[in-house]
Amino acid sequence: MATVADVTARYENFLIPVLSSRDGVCATCKRSVLSGWSGCYQCGRHQALPHRADVVVPIALAVEHEQWTHELSGYKNSSSLDARRSMAIGIGAVLWRWLDAHETCVQDAVGSSDFPIVTAVPSTRGRAQHPLPHLLTEIVKPTADRYADLLRANTSYSPGSRDARPDRYLTDTRLHGESVLLIDDQWTSGGHAQSAACALKLAGAGQVAVVALGRRFDRYPDRDDYRAAAEAYYRAAKAQGWSWTACCMCDQARADLASSRHRTAAESVIR
Amino acid sequence: MTERGALLALLRSPAQRWRAVTEEVESAGSALAVLHGGAPVQMSLFAPDSTDADALAMDAEQQIQAWEEEGLKFVTLLDADYPSQLLTVHQRPPFLMMRGTPDEGDLRGVAIVGTRAASSEGVQSAYQLAAALAGARVPVVSGLAAGIDTGALSGALSAGGRAVAVIGTGLHHSYPKQNADLQDRIGRVGLVISQFLPDTPPTKATFPMRNAVMSGYAAATVVVEAPYKSGARMQARLALEHGRRVFLLESLLANDWAQTYAKRPNTIVVRSVDDVLDHIEPILAADNDLVWA
Q: What is d(CA B173, CA B183) in angstroms, rounded to the nearest whole number?
């Protein structure tokens, strides 16, 4: 038996937070963008979908070649069952602890009182037993009872394709306005998760919130200005440091509250 | 055509980054598939036609068999005998070369690290700590450098325990030369591991790379005596970034860096061998089921 607090302690040394919305941060997926841009190129392309997630909340940065990113692919791809299991338990513990602290932040962001349904973005690799549903049903107890296997990959798309399409995923279930918490392991371009969110909405879901364990992050893009933006973001996130009591949504709520208080104070001075 | 031959062929190709090959092969679950194209890594290399790829893989396989004839194992990250605990860290090397006897029990191993220029008290502490761990059937992992490493591995051997050396050169080298006998002995009764091809000489880059593998191979790292500028301090940092526990011997707190590290999560300051054993048992107990509290 391992407790969530014990297992998650080791992650405090390397998890890097995702920045809340501000200049230099994509308003949707929270990646780094050039100053003055409200959104990134990929999230702009997803506007072509008839529906998208109501909010996207990445838990931590998945920096290329760093430990968190390794675990988020290793729990699926490692050649050893023991290694996969060990990484799945760690990732599950992080998700459990994070949801315990911040699921309400996600609810607040979409104006929903709860998420009666939890589901996962399906693997496009056609694995017999996909590790993410296993994690959500067998390891993370707070999602186990709410989990429903709603989506399956449309095999007419090539597995490697990251394009966002309304029929990228299919479902046989009819929803009736329920709010859905859609979990993904890594958000890269967001094409898969947004396609999945779209499919859920087409099936009748109410609010759809994406929680991604990692926001894939390339510190060294080829273009100089992108690289400078990425480095500024990375430094700010490292300086902020990891905390279980903060997420990119409640940081945002605090910032909004602080600025409204500031305004009120300023207004009262003027009066 | 073998998977291991294909992996070595990929790594031998000019200007190929080993990390990229590692990620690609692990994700594809096959080095042959990567070598034969389709995967992105392939685009960046020499783009051989498939006959060339086959020839390169067969040539590499012959080389591996030649190493086997001299008693060296070549284990890739796709093989069942690659240590599973090392697969969980991002700095897992694409292969390990080994002399000696692999043992799955090593996933309970504890690394003991410290400076080459150790005090006699430091060497003594390392020796006693290793002997006590060996007495508790905990494998001792160290680097086979002079000073603390030598003390730790000698202590484990003297107590009849399991000793594993992770070295910063290829297996055809010993560094320092004075430790050639110790390396031989560990190769006979324990295990010597290298992440490099056998003829790789010692360089400035190879030792820090070795520290990453040592951290990943062990369940936890104990730092015995180490100034700011040392591979041991680097290993403490790498271990924390791997999510591994770090133990700092209390005497280390004389160093500013150790005082800073002592405040980091998953770091424990220890006074005695018993302290280490007390804090190591929970880590070594397999965490199969997760509960809230």
A: 10
Q: Note the pLDDT tens digit of each residue in B108-134.
A: 999 999 999 999 999 999 999 999 999
Question: Is B84 in Cβ contact with A70 (below 8 Å)?
Answer: no
End-to-end Cα separation, chain A, in angstroms: 61
CB atoms within 10 A of CB A3: 14
State the residue for tokens 């991002």. Answer: B90
**Strand B73-76, strand B95-100: pairing:** antiparallel
CB pairs under 8 A between A and B: 106
Both ends of chain B: CA-CA distance in Å? Answer: 50
- DSSP state letter for B252: G
**Do residues B127 and B151 lie in contact, with contact meaning Cβ atoms separated by under 8 Å?**
yes
Whole-angstrom distance, CA of residue B289 vs CA of residue B122: 39
In chain A, where the domains are located: 4-266
The ipTM is 0.93
Which residue of A11, A63, A82, A143 is the best one to mutate when testing the B interface, meaning the one whose CB has the most B CBs within 10 A?
A82
Measured CA to CA, the distance from residue B287 to residue A97 in angstroms comes to 17
pLDDT tens per residue, range A206-247: 999 999 999 999 999 999 999 999 999 999 999 999 999 999
Q: What's the rounded Cα separation, in Å, for the pair B256 and B177?
A: 33
Give residue B282's pLDDT band: very low, low, confident or very high (50, 70, 90).
Answer: confident
